[in-house]
Write a structure and sequence with these properties.
InterPro entries (chain A): IspD/TarI, IspD/TarI_cytidylyltransf_bact, ISPD_synthase_CS, Nucleotide-diphossugar_trans
Keywords (chain A): Nucleotidyltransferase, Transferase
Number of helices of chain B: 2
Strand content of chain B: 25-35%
Shape of chain B: elongated
Radius of gyration of chain A: 17 Å
Pfam family, one (chain A): IspD
Distance between the termini of chain B: 22 Å
Radius of gyration of chain B: 17 Å
Distance between the termini of chain A: 23 Å
Largest interface: A-B, 28 and 29 residues
GO molecular function, one term (chain A): 2-C-methyl-D-erythritol 4-phosphate cytidylyltransferase activity
Helix content of chain B: 40-55%
Strand content of chain A: 15-25%
Oligomer: heterodimer
Largest sheet of chain B: 4 strands, antiparallel
Mean pLDDT of chain B: 84
Number of helices of chain A: 7
Number of domains of chain A: 1
Structural class of chain B: alpha+beta
Helix content of chain A: 25-40%
CATH class of chain A: Alpha Beta
Number of strands of chain A: 10
Number of strands of chain B: 4
Strand order of the largest sheet of chain B: 1-2-3-4
Largest sheet of chain A: 8 strands, mixed
Chain lengths: 229, 105
């Protein structure tokens, strides 16, 4: 299995003026993004690692990577105006290697999810290699959303992984059609509906840092893990 | 990162949209976040923060030699120059963190 890991961190931190993109915030002594990146690549010693950032953060990225992730070889790619565009840029960067058969699984992870364990990344990559695609999902009690519903509802997380060639073709087709997906799986579903995407059990602790409370929860989780992963 | 104040966009539960928040850190720990629009604040519970800080301090002390070595290995010259200054500033830095944690009640 030849894996490429793509970590998305291109969100803007300056929509309201001078502020930091949340992925660069400290979390128990290290930046959120460096934790996300380190966990993502831990299980894949020979992976290609792509970090998609806002070009205005390039100086900060170099500083943080040299301090906190100096042992990881990272290729930096400029992000776009949307998540979809950032994924597209990363895939175009990897396209020559994908076409040459040097990468057969691409895994895309949100930089604001610093608590996904290396085991989850490995499970997702293996399932994608075997079945075509894999996403982590947590079953939600449907009554939390609609009391009358008895359908099974899942909360989807990242990392999401797919066979590299299919994913590249999907994003190329999306570019031609002007399709913009909400996440990686949405684009694959649009262009390769027959690809079997497996739902792998997600992790409750794999929160996306969104609310201020998430930072407090993340600190507690890291403390419980002895600040590892 | 001692008693540092940062600003970042986070989703405010009160405003129900992304707003700029001020984040206050003591050492490696987050002390509080405040929404700059509605002033709603999220804090660690005081007793919890003290325990959390002690555990974190223990971890920082235990891992310091390893972190120092790594820094020396990467940049021996600049590390050697900055070490005495950093060493001298540690008591004041930790005292300031403790004051910030105790003073938030």
């Amino acid at each position: 299995m030849r894996v490429a890991v793509v970590v998305l961190a291109a969100g803007s931190g300056s929509r309201f003026g001078h502020s930091t993109n949340k992925v660069w915030l400290p979390l128990s002594g290290r930046r959120i993004l460096s934790r996300s990146l380190t966990n993502a690549v831990k299980s894949f010693p020979k992976s290609r690692n792509v970090l998609v950032i806002n070009p205005t953060d390039s100086h900060l990225a170099k500083e943080v990577l040299s301090r906190e992730a100096h042992s990881i070889k990272v290729e930096i790619v400029a992000g776009g105006n949307s998540r979809h565009e950032s994924e597209h840029n990363a895939l175009m960067h990897l396209a020559p290697a994908i076409e040459a058969g040097k990468i057969n699984v691409v895994m895309i992870h949100d930089g604001a999810r610093p608590l996904a364990t290396s085991k989850l990344f490995l499970d997702i990559a293996q399932a994608a290699h075997l079945h075509g695609g894999a996403i982590p999902a947590i079953v939600v009690d449907p009554r939390e959303i609609d009391y009358s519903s008895d359908r099974e509802i899942v909360r989807v997380q990242t990392p999401q992984a797919f066979r590299a060639k299919d994913l590249l073709d999907a994003y190329r087709s999306a570019e031609v059609d002007g399709f913009v997906g909400t996440d990686t799986a949405a684009c694959m579903e649009e262009y390769f509906p027959k690809v079997h995407t497996i739902a792998v059990p997600g992790e409750v602790a794999n929160v996306k840092i969104t609310y201020p409370q998430d930072l407090v929860i993340a600190e507690h989780v890291l403390e419980m893990r002895g600040y590892k992963e | 990162m001692n008693n540092e104040e940062l600003t970042a966009e986070l989703h405010c539960s009160n405003c129900d949209h992304e707003t700029i928040h001020t984040l206050v850190y003591a050492g490696r720990l987050l002390v509080s976040t405040t929404c700059q629009v509605c002033n709603s604040q999220v804090k660690h519970e005081a007793i919890d923060l003290r325990l959390h800080y002690l555990k974190d301090l223990e971890h920082r002390i235990a891992t310091k030699p390893r972190r120092l070595l790594r820094r020396f290995w990467r940049a021996p010259f600049s590390s050697a120059i900055s070490l005495p200054k950093k060493f001298m500033s540690q008591p004041r830095k930790i005292w300031s963190e403790i004051k910030s944690i105790l003073g938030r009640n």
